[in-house]
């Protein structure tokens, strides 16, 4: 059933039927934490994106149709340039070409559990993917939350336990973990405010975990929620969303990348001793 939900999220791009489940049948993760100093004074930085479809750049309205990774013969729209390409261009402009390499490991339909255990649609556990990189990752970024909430039905406690294990996996690979806050979604069953299962609660808990561990959370959720264009009557700017109300459109992806880059650039500068 999880595969069905993931396919619905990516190919139908509406996450229909993925809001329930309450996490039943979800394996119990092992609770671990790890923190350590970021490497400094490097001459080059490699960033690995371990993200979901909203990191991959899924956009049902985009005329740019591509083969999605991990989804068989799934063909769907993708924003062009992709979020990873936007980030790469910004780093090239800020620090010079070749100083930072952005590797896009985003898997549409993925969750923290899928990433860590290598379950479909992921192709291998995160630890294996990081170990197989030709150039070891210095920074690994996750934006996982939307599918964790709506596909797996996780509450704050379960989500944070998986996130602790994700942080441990990244630090064990010698990289710095970074959390990229997701965008909100505007489905009719959107759940922003519930203190145990709502989007804001899960994201706030992840922000707190990363801050307490000495790592960076890239702001974005509140930016979406607070950015309104009068006389927009919505609680946040749905003009940034594609018609599925889950994935951003071109303008929304550009807005997200701008939010992320502003907070990520100082982390990379420090790592490079600049």
TrEMBL record:
Keywords: Signal. This is SGNH hydrolase-type esterase domain-containing protein. CDD domains: SGNH_hydrolase. Residues 1-19 form the signal peptide. InterPro entries: SGNH_hydro_sf (IPR036514). The keyword Signal applies. SUPFAM superfamilies: SGNH hydrolase (SSF52266). The keyword Signal applies. GO terms for molecular function: hydrolase activity, acting on ester bonds.
């Amino acid at each position: 059933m999880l595969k069905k939900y993931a396919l619905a999220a990516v190919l139908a791009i509406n996450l229909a039927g993925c809001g329930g489940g309450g996490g039943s049948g979800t394996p119990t993760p092992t609770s671990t934490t790890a923190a350590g100093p970021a490497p400094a004074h490097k001459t080059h930085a490699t960033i690995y994106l371990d993200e979901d479809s909203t990191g991959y750049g899924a956009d049902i309205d985009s005329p740019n149709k591509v083969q999605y990774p991990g989804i068989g013969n799934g063909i769907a729209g993708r924003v062009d340039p992709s979020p990873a390409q936007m980030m790469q261009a910004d780093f090239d402009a800020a620090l010079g070409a070749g100083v930072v390499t952005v590797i896009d490991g985003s898997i549409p339909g993925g969750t923290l559990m899928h990433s860590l255990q290598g379950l479909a649609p992921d192709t291998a556990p995160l630890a294996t993917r990081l170990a197989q990189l030709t150039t070891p990752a210095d920074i690994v970024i996750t934006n996982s939350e939307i599918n964790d909430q709506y596909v797996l039905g996780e509450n704050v406690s379960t989500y944070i336990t998986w996130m602790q294990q994700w942080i441990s996996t990244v630090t064990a690979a010698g990289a710095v973990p970074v959390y990229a806050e997701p965008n909100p979604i505007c489905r009719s069953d959107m759940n922003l405010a519930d203190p145990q299962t709502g989007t804001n609660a899960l994201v706030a808990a992840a922000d707190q975990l990363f801050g307490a561990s000495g790592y960076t959370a890239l702001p974005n959720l509140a930016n979406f929620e607070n950015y309104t264009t009068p006389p927009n009557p919505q609680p946040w700017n749905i003009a940034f969303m594609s018609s599925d109300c889950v994935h951003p459109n071109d303008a929304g992806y550009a807005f997200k990348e701008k939010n992320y880059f502003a907070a990520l650039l100082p982390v990379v500068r420090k790592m490079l001793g600049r």
